[in-house]
């Protein structure tokens, strides 16, 4: 009998309480779900509920996100290297030795760091608007690129707009077929977390560090070519940050790709969860 029960747990990693959602039988194959910005494991709530009959699912929140601890930026280094190491250690502490990685947005630079460090552990990849190619950086990144060049107050200002309630709502609703289908709990929860004292600084540090992800794209592409992990792509083509060319670019390096493009935005699961969950189930059954 199928159960939709999800457990909500904490695990201490480097003196940081990391929150994670878990569903399914640990004896089954594991899918690790890595979230994007500015959200948390909350974005995978339907995946956790719907796939738990056949799979074991783990969805952590990064330090400073969701229900995980928020160490201040003068205590914890908000970089993708640091976050990936914490999540890698979490997975090791949970005795997960093989798993499929599902990555979205920030989940891609976190997940690819884990995959390149432990290619033998990653059975397959599920990529939902998670970029690894310069072709996938839209003009929506122009303000961020100016920020990378010079971290001035003037260049910070457009980034701060991403932290407002309207800015976060826009990230969820832009490019969707019907914004009324998108649950406002998403942006209200994210805004509450990102508005904690000191969190804007942590997020600015991460956005500034994102340029180091772009520098690692060739390494991640080599990982894909050398290891040929089975790859499922489910992509919202109207993403203002990572448009469809970012999805198409994977086809250059990976031979076995299950490819699905949806007429929706950055958070494709919000409008296409039923189809994407069906894609995941079919993909996993054919590994």
Automatic annotation (TrEMBL):
User: Would the keyword NADP turn up in this protein's UniProt record?
Assistant: no
Family matches, as SUPFAM superfamilies: alpha/beta-Hydrolases
Q: Which Gene3D superfamilies match?
A: alpha/beta hydrolase
Q: Where is the AB hydrolase-1 domain?
A: 30-272
A single Gene Ontology MF term assigned here is: epoxide hydrolase activity
Q: Which UniProt keywords apply?
A: Hydrolase
Task: Mention any Pfam family matching this sequence.
Answer: Abhydrolase_1
Q: What is this protein called?
A: Alpha/beta hydrolase
Q: Which organism is it from?
A: Flavobacterium zepuense
């Amino acid at each position: 009998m199928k159960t939709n029960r999800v457990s909500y747990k904490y695990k201490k990693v480097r003196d940081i309480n990391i929150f994670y959602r878990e569903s399914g039988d640990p004896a089954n194959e594991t899918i690790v779900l890595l979230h994007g910005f500015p959200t948390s494991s909350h974005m995978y709530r339907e995946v956790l509920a719907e796939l738990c009959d056949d799979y074991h699912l783990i969805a952590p929140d990064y330090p400073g996100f969701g229900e995980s601890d928020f160490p201040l930026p003068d205590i914890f280094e908000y970089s993708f290297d640091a976050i990936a190491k914490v999540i890698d250690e979490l997975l090791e502490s949970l005795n997960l030795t093989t798993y499929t990685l599902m990555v979205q947005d920030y989940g891609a630079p976190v997940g690819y760091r884990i995959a390149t460090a432990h290619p033998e552990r990653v059975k397959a990849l599920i990529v939902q608007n998670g970029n690894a190619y310069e072709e996938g950086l839209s003009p929506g990144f122009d303000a961020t690129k100016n920020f990378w060049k010079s971290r001035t107050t003037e260049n910070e200002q457009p980034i701060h707009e991403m932290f407002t309630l309207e800015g976060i709502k826009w990230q969820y609703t832009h490019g969707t077929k019907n914004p009324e289908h998108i649950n406002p709990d998403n942006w209200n929860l994210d805004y509450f977390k990102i508005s904690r004292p000191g969190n804007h600084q942590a997020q600015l540090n991460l956005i500034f560090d994102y340029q180091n992800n772009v520098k690692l794209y060739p390494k991640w592409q080599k990982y894909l070519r050398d290891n040929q992990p089975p790859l499922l792509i489910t992509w919202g083509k109207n993403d203002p940050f990572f448009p469809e060319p970012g999805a198409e670019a994977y086809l250059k390096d990976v031979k076995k790709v299950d490819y699905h493009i949806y007429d929706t935005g950055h958070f494709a699961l919000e409008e296409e969860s039923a189809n994407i969950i069906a894609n995941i189930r079919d993909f996993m059954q054919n590994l």
